[in-house]
Description:
In chain A, strands 3-10-9-4-5-8-6-7 form an 8-stranded mixed sheet, with helices on both faces. The first copy, chain A, is 48% helix and 15% strand. By secondary structure, chain A is of the alpha/beta class. Chains A and B meet through helix 8 and helix 9 of A and helix 8 and helix 9 of B.
Amino acid sequence: MGGDLGPAVVLSAVLSVLREDPLLSVDLFGDEHQLAGMMASAGLSVSGDHRLTIHHAPDAVDMTDSPVHALRHKKHSSMRMALERLQSGQASACLSAGNTGALVLMGHHLLKTLPGVERAAMCTLLPSPDGHTFLLDVGATVEVTPALLLQHAKLGTAMARHLDGCTRPRVGLLNVGVEAGKGPMLMCDADALLRACADIEYRGFVEGNDLFAGTVEVVVTDGFTGNIALKASEGAARLVSIKVADYVRRHPLLGLLAGILRPLLKGLKSELDPESFNGACLLGLQGVVVKSHGASSERGMAQSLRLAARLGRSSLISDGMKVVV
Amino acid sequence: MGGDLGPAVVLSAVLSVLREDPLLSVDLFGDEHQLAGMMASAGLSVSGDHRLTIHHAPDAVDMTDSPVHALRHKKHSSMRMALERLQSGQASACLSAGNTGALVLMGHHLLKTLPGVERAAMCTLLPSPDGHTFLLDVGATVEVTPALLLQHAKLGTAMARHLDGCTRPRVGLLNVGVEAGKGPMLMCDADALLRACADIEYRGFVEGNDLFAGTVEVVVTDGFTGNIALKASEGAARLVSIKVADYVRRHPLLGLLAGILRPLLKGLKSELDPESFNGACLLGLQGVVVKSHGASSERGMAQSLRLAARLGRSSLISDGMKVVV
């Protein structure tokens, strides 16, 4: 159990999702004494709710730990113990807000990849005008091959089917232009490979702006480009809100009206909130692993937990066994 | 003379910048008859203004032309003729809204690179909370080496000095994490090279969100990643405005107030408008070449022309001769 905001945020997100989802049960891994203290001060007892079990994890993967160090030396960390619970079949999904690199390496080590998948991809949901776009990879594997991009295209297709019920999601390959022959050799080779695959609805190259345009349901790229595109977009959106807030501050009339408009603006804010899309899924492993943003608020953490529960109940993994071979 | 919006937009942007800048003169390359007709219908005569000269370019580079085709077969295109005017020293800067790939190839062919620069980089300005960030490369060279990234870091430094008067601009290298050793081998090698260079104020790796955060003044990356990060950010910002407009439509009270607030909102819009940052500079050539967005409005085109004029008057190129050796 990790996350930059500490265990209190995680605990309260868990309690709130347990309340809304009566069939869910959660195993929480972390510092038992700290968690018990928090429960007590909130007037709750662990034994009172059989759907929440706290497991003591004496160790923790730090954000600065190298993935290899974490794999070798953090055998009793909350991250590893949660993955082991998934591996043993005692859990249907694993959620972590910790060190991404360590989660990717431990996930591969403990769960193994699906047949036909060389490396997993981190898949995230981005908002579009009428729904959302699945982007993968956003950081699990920075150096890729055309064959791996094809595997990820199939995984993204499976994800869009399971989460959105989209029977034939359109797939695009992220590039610097839409014309064939554009961009690096790697992308041209991958384009040829995806074009020849009948299992996916491949629509050719797409550009950065297509991530938010609803042009396709699935966008495939390497983990380096995907990670930077995702964070650049978050940065641009954040700057817009800083500039809006600044502008309101400088114009007293807007400030006055803001009071009246607050309830309406709150609704708008929640529609635009990136937290409502929080939670990336580590796709291609033999188990559902969801990664929540390290700096998540309670709302973002709860959203990730709902995603983990939903994917854990779906047949994504068993279908994945067939999809990618 | 190109651009998706046609010559009318270019012409009216040129006329408006000529009015505000009494020392500027412009050579316009395009279809002479079409341009003369437009001037006449606007009640203007070319001979009436000695600061505007129209040159007939019988040919045009199409957006679908391959760069090699354009270089070989479009010798009388407006793009080539404008670059030749710069090459001959009869112009101080060249502005184009046409095919980027063709402009990059023709620019290299006609102007050559500065001593010590293997390939030029397309450098753009992004807004940040208190100023802006120079991002390069956003699409001139998709496959790079650590040595080229170092050359681009020096070019970006020169650009920030000339445009912002920043004596020691901070430089960051775009990556998937800030810790040393993260990301692909290429970026780690480039990190070592930049760290060893005393001519730049290198601050190590930065992430996608730093593009809009003001963490550093110059961000260096390859043309593939830079292009996608730029377009993804534009896509995210555009989606925010679509969602806001949608929300206003669904809430009549907001619609009513929008009427009252219009003048204030217009001011905000202009602060957020990406057009006000329009214009990327092809840095590293022996001449100032500015690229305007193909889909630019008159406002965006005028902004690019102001940038071209400003850089054409600066000592960017003569200083570049010394900076990068």
